[in-house]
Design a protein that fits this description.
mainly alpha; single chain
Length: 203
Amino acid sequence: MKKRCSWPGEDPVYVAYHDEEWGVPVHDERLLFEFLCLEGQQAGLSWITVLKKRDHYRKCFKNFEIDKVARMTDKTIEKLLLDTGLIRNRMKLYSIRSNALAFKKVQKEFGTFDSYFWSFTNGKVLDGKRKTRADVPTTTDISDVMSKDLKKRGFKFIGSTICYALMQAAGLINDHTGNCFRYKELKKLAVDTKKKSSGIRTN
């Protein structure tokens, strides 16, 4: 039987996310935008709550196609506030559109959001080297800097804790515990891919 991190428990949705997605380096613009928005929807809630609504969010928010989301009208978003399949928080739902607009500005300035995002780790996957779940932090100096810079650029629901969760989800850091089968798999993947970034660094 495979050993894995303790947090997914036995929920099949959570286990699949842990085994197939969490910690895999992401460089696709659409998927980065999706993760950024969904992590923001999680604020004050559990990730599994958002994860189980993920497909419906994709349906309601144009599969997180950045240009399409940026063009969504107030009328459309107001209708979504009546949708029980979403987290019906006005500020959270409107933040998806505002984040799309901010995302597009970053793309224009840096060429891709990917180049900007990965610059916080100089294009490298960090190795958390966590022995147990208790060793995993909720924020770091890097997530603090990232949060501050994203807020300055107009992003919403992007505090340091959310930024660190985003770093974990998108593979900027391998935070699988050492006894988890995915830790070694992703460590090897990081070495094999050696993804290059632009090296742009924010202060």
